[in-house]
Amino acid sequence: MKVLVIGGGGREHALAWKAAQSSQVDEVLVAPGNAGTASEPGCRNVDIGAEDIDALLELARTELVGLTIVGPEAPLAAGVVDRFQAAGLACFGPSAKAAQLESSKAFAKDFMARHRIPTARYGVVESVDEGMDMVNSIGLPLVLKADGLAAGKGVVIVDRLDQARATLEDMLSGQAFGEAGHRVVVEEFLIGEEASFIVIADGEHALPLATSQDHKRRDEGDQGPNTGGMGAYSPAPVVDAAMHQRILQEVIQPTLSGMQADGCRFTGFLYAGVMLTDDGPKVLEFNVRFGDPETQPILMRLQSDLVETLQRTLDGHIQDIELGWDERVALGIVLAAGGYPDGYEKGKPISGLDSDFPHHVKVFHAGTRLDEQGQVVTSGGRVLCVTALGPNVKAARDQALEWMARIGFEGAFYRSDIGHRAISRD
């Protein structure tokens, strides 16, 4: 059969790479893909944008695609799954209605309050004065979040009143995040350690994937502005067996039950960004798709057939699935373009991609494309994710850094401290 992966980032490269390993799959189509998927064995790029649902439907029909996997959030929010299902095509992801868990932070916070899912205190505001009243009510420091989709960057931590006012003005004016910022969630700042908890869901039941931890801040030591993610590793030792069970019981299962009760049955990848506080796990955010860059280390460890797993989930057999995992740690480091997450230049030639990478190291492409001469050049802020397996977090990081040093382009930068919390714990 053929599989279609929608999207063109690092997550989609990892999904396509893993799908191509399935014994059931003859070819993986990636729309639009990147320079990495263009050269991945068993994969073929198709020049269709991730939000061009009409063209994606026609592609799936013409190519007789047996399963479509949706990578990014925007097409999910636009209803790509609804359209595919209406056409009788298997598509893995939530409906547009269920995707509101990510496409509207206000929806998600109100949902959690209604269903008593632990999260930070908050208020939703539409004016600067209303926002400042909420700031004074909650107290500093706090978090300001653009309500809509902002590519993982619509979150600002503030610790001064003048900074809070300026950020509210910037967001609500539409200058910072466009339509996404016309409503703002003002949220209590939670103290603890964050983990990514991702499950495969069939509407009622959850199949947990390996735990992971993302690093959102741009700079070493978790400093600087928030980004889409500068690196991740799996498993996350902060989520021990007891905490794993608490997150399932207090967050994941109530979310699935609540969505079903609200008429928004959730099927797909459900991602809970969880802060592990002294009072227990509290949800920072929901995503309705696989995380990026968490996908890369998680799929490096997954030994089971991804395509078979998703098909059996859609067929109602999720409770019969047992996933197999490599016992080693996987750690991925993002190589980013100078200026990211703000303005950055594109079209920079990338060197070192022809290195003889060992089996335990994989370079996943994100913001890359092929130029007219067939040279791989940069085309985004997060350009590559060098991911390595090792017996522990430090060994995996050392391997990723060793091979990262062989790759480069003008203005490239990365964090060398990914996994520092786990290493300190060890």
TrEMBL record:
InterPro entries linked to this entry: ATP-grasp, ATP_grasp_subdomain_1, PreATP-grasp_dom_sf, PRibGlycinamid_synth_ATP-grasp, PRibGlycinamide_synth, PRibGlycinamide_synth_C-dom, PRibGlycinamide_synth_C_sf, PRibGlycinamide_synth_CS
Entry keywords, A to Z: ATP-binding, Ligase, Magnesium, Manganese, Metal-binding, Nucleotide-binding, Purine biosynthesis
E.C. number(s) listed in UniProt: 6.3.4.13
A GO MF label: metal ion binding
One Pfam family recorded for the sequence: GARS_C
Keyword DNA-binding appears in the UniProt entry: no
PROSITE patterns with a match to the protein in the record: ATP_GRASP, GARS
GO biological process: 'de novo' IMP biosynthetic process; purine nucleobase biosynthetic process
Enzyme class: ligase
Annotated stretches, region: Disordered: 209-232
Metal-binding recorded as keyword: yes
Pathway participation: Purine metabolism; IMP biosynthesis via de novo pathway; N(1)-(5-phospho-D-ribosyl)glycinamide from 5-phospho-alpha-D-ribose 1-diphosphate: step 2/2
Catalytic activity: 5-phospho-beta-D-ribosylamine + glycine + ATP = N(1)-(5-phospho-beta-D-ribosyl)glycinamide + ADP + phosphate + H(+)
Required cofactor names: Mn(2+); Mg(2+)
PANTHER family noted in UniProt: PHOSPHORIBOSYLAMINE--GLYCINE LIGASE, PHOSPHORIBOSYLAMINE--GLYCINE LIGASE, CHLOROPLASTIC
Similarity comment: family membership: Belongs to the GARS family.
HAMAP family, alphabetized: GARS
Protein name: Phosphoribosylamine--glycine ligase
Organism: Wenzhouxiangella marina
